[in-house]
Amino acid sequence: MLHMFVAQTKAESIRIIRSPFFLLFSIAMPLAFYFLFASMNGVDKSIKSTTWGVFSLMSMTAFSLIGTAVSQFGIRLSFEHQDGWVRLLKLTPLSPAVWIGSKIVSQMAVHLIVIVVIFLSAGLVHDIQLTAGQWILCGLWLWIGSISFLALGALLGTLKNANTSVAIGNVLQMGLAIVGGLWMPLSTLPSWMGSVGEWLPSHRYANGAWNMIAGQNPASIDFIILTGCGLLFMLLSIYIYNRRDAV
């Protein structure tokens, strides 16, 4: 069982990294947005007890991980259901637990790579001044917090029509990013949008990192909303998968 899990995890990781969609949408596009927003607003200009260079770095790293978890992980699950891959698995020794477990572990490994690449790129280009502790804590927060969005991706993956999942996944990623204040601070958005954005998991996800770079701890509401949404998405996806198998 362990050998199968390791082999499947390795295969999943290689497949993700070799995908041109991963390189484009998880690395290149978030970095392009980062350099654009940081330069446009002034890398050293102050914002929320930090600078635009650091603020945008955490925002775009969060944006990248949300997209990787929702748009790529979720959509891939939906296509595998539509193409009959999940039904085919029932004819192999590979158990559902090993299959989904390997996907989650490989996705988390890829998330770690994304964080390191984006942090290094921004740090080298703009000479970001953070302590070693801040780099590590922000990276860990973003890495662990991405589990909630993997749960959202798993829920998206329950859709039987993969084309529909593509459309919904893209709307979710952009909506969570824009309304959640990842592109521009909530204070610059219309008041009604800012009021909604404060309660989105994407905002709370980035807010924890923003607090850390300002020398503070993530707010309690950040933990509550991220954990609560993650559990809700996970329970809903498990319920749908089990109900589908029963039929």
Give a description of the structure.
The chain is an all-alpha fold and 247 residues long. 79% of the residues lie in helices and 2% in strands. It has helices at residues 2-18, 20-41, 52-82, 85-89, 96-126, 132-156, 162-179, 191-197, 201-213, 220-246, and strands spanning 46-47, 50-51.
Shape: globular
In DSSP terms, counting alpha (H) and pi (I) runs of 4 or more, how many helices? 10
Q: How much of the polypeptide forms β-strand, as a percent range?
A: under 5%
Mean pLDDT: 89
For the largest beta-sheet, the strand count, sense and barrel status come to: 2 strands, antiparallel
Can you give the helix content as a percent range?
A: over 70%
Distance linking N and C termini: 28 Å
Structural class comes to mainly alpha
**Low-pLDDT windows of residues:** none
The number of domains: 1
Number of strands: 2
Keyword list:
mainly alpha
Provide a short characterization of the protein structure.
The chain has 247 residues and is mainly alpha-helical.
Topology of helices and strands:
Layout: H1 2-18, H2 20-41, E1 46-47, E2 50-51, H3 52-82, H4 85-89, H5 96-126, H6 132-156, H7 162-179, H8 191-197, H9 201-213, H10 220-246
Antiparallel strand pairs: 1-2
Helix pairs in contact: 1-5, 2-3, 2-5, 3-5, 3-6, 3-7, 3-9, 5-6, 6-9, 6-10, 9-10
